[in-house]
UniProtKB/TrEMBL annotation:
InterPro entries with a match to the protein in the record: ComF/GntX_DNA_util-trans, PRTase-like, PRTase_dom
Family of this protein: Belongs to the ComF/GntX family.
Gene3D superfamilies assigned to the protein according to its UniProt record, in alphabetical order: 3.40.50.2020
Organism encoding this protein: Tenacibaculum geojense
PANTHER family for the chain: DNA UTILIZATION PROTEIN YHGH
Protein name according to UniProt: ComF family protein
Matching SUPFAM superfamilies: PRTase-like
Length: 230
């Protein structure tokens, strides 16, 4: 089996999604150097941090978490771009495992009833074929031993075409409208809303405003990355 694997790697080498160097057998998604230099965000207080403060005075967010710092042209942008536009679902698993492990170790997220990925518009989902946040959500759910709900929230408008936008602007698009499809399921529940990148927070705020139509719902937020201000 190892011989066949080595032959496959010879003709179809696995590359680091950030630097494009060949990966060794013990490396996954990132080479050792890129993995070591990941711009990880350190959060000691999940109740009061840069994520929760982003929504202060707008919507009540119980807990907030984000894994990586996002800046134009840094490794985070390249990694998430590989997931978002190249359907590299292993990136979603990789980031979901890293963040899910942190959340599990904190014990603050032990009572999450549902994880809700920010949805794509149905037409964009059909066009792209996948929601880049779903694998991320599923992996976190496995770590927290909870469920993912992709049916309770839907996007009801389609963002304008992003074809002519640069890669950084695509992550910043916040022209979104959402609709909750079922308020009964989430009554008295604690949900974790997950997305890829927080830029202004407008997309997540729009989602939360819909979810808050549910009686006695508690909302926490987790993302792959948080945009650092220049």
């Amino acid at each position: 089996m190892q011989f066949l694997k080595d032959i496959t790697r010879l003709f179809y080498p696995e590359l680091c999604v950030n630097c494009n160097n060949n990966l060794y057998d013990n490396e996954l998604i990132l080479c050792t150097s890129c993995n070591f230099n990941l711009p990880l965000l350190i959060i000691n207080d999940y109740s009061n941090n840069f994520v929760t403060q982003c929504f202060y005075g707008k919507i009540p967010v119980k807990l907030g978490a984000s894994l990586l710092a996002f800046k134009k042209e840094n490794s985070t942008q390249q990694i998430i771009h590989d997931l978002k536009y190249k359907n590299n679902q292993e990136v979603g698993n990789f980031l979901g495992y890293l963040l899910g492990k942190q959340l599990k170790e904190s014990t603050k997220f032990s009572n999450i009833d549902y994880i809700i990925p920010v949805p794509l518009h149905v037409k964009k989902l059909q066009q792209r074929g996948y929601n880049q946040v779903t694998t991320f959500a599923n992996t976190i759910a496995n770590e927290l031993n909870t469920k993912v709900n992709t049916q309770v929230l839907k996007r009801v408008n389609k963002n304008t075409s992003q074809t002519f936008k640069n890669r950084f602007e695509r992550f910043s698009d916040t022209n979104t409208t959402f609709e909750i499809t079922d308020t009964n399921t989430l009554i008295n529940k604690h949900v974790l809303l997950v997305d890829d990148v927080i830029t202004t927070g407008a997309t997540l705020e729009a989602c939360c405003n819909e979810l808050l139509k549910t009686k006695n719902i508690t909302i926490s937020i987790a993302t792959m990355a948080f945009t650092e201000k220049s």
